[in-house]
């Protein structure tokens, strides 16, 4: 294995992880901002009002994007398995 292959492997892994995490985190972040604006406008400071909607949205994102997330992992591992013979040989 040469340094170029190792760098490519690591960069693909990091890019895949970031891509998968963004699908789960960004919707929760946007919903958190909306809830914070609502709380500031109404002066309601209930902790469950910030936690519960974000948790439910993240769960829904796992349900709806789960197939895509698993497919991304399978594609990355398929690419890795194709690179293994080149790394060893």
TrEMBL record:
Q: Which InterPro entries match?
A: Bac_export_3
Q: Is Cell membrane there in the keyword field? A: yes
Record membrane topology:
Multi-pass membrane protein
Q: Keywords for this entry? A: Cell membrane, Cell projection, Cilium, Flagellum, Membrane, Transmembrane, Transmembrane helix
Residues annotated as transmembrane: 13-39, 51-70
**Annotated compartments:** Cell membrane
Name any Gene Ontology BP term: protein secretion
**Chief subcellular location:** membrane
Q: What cellular component GO annotations does this protein have?
A: plasma membrane
Q: Which PANTHER family match?
A: FLAGELLAR BIOSYNTHETIC PROTEIN FLIQ (PTHR34040:SF8)
Q: What is this protein called?
A: Flagellar biosynthetic protein FliQ
Say which species the protein is native to: Rheinheimera mesophila
Instruction: Please spell out the taxonomic lineage of the organism that makes this protein.
Output: Bacteria, Pseudomonadati, Pseudomonadota, Gammaproteobacteria, Chromatiales
């Amino acid at each position: 294995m040469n340094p170029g292959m190792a760098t490519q492997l690591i960069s693909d892994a990091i890019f895949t992880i970031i891509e998968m995490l963004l699908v789960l985190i960004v919707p929760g972040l946007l919903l958190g901002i909306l809830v914070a604006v609502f709380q500031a406008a109404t002066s309601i400071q209930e902790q469950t009002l910030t936690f519960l909607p974000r948790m439910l949205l993240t769960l829904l994102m796992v349900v709806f994007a789960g197939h895509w997330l698993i497919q991304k992992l399978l594609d990355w591992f398929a690419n890795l398995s194709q690179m293994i013979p080149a790394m060893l040989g």
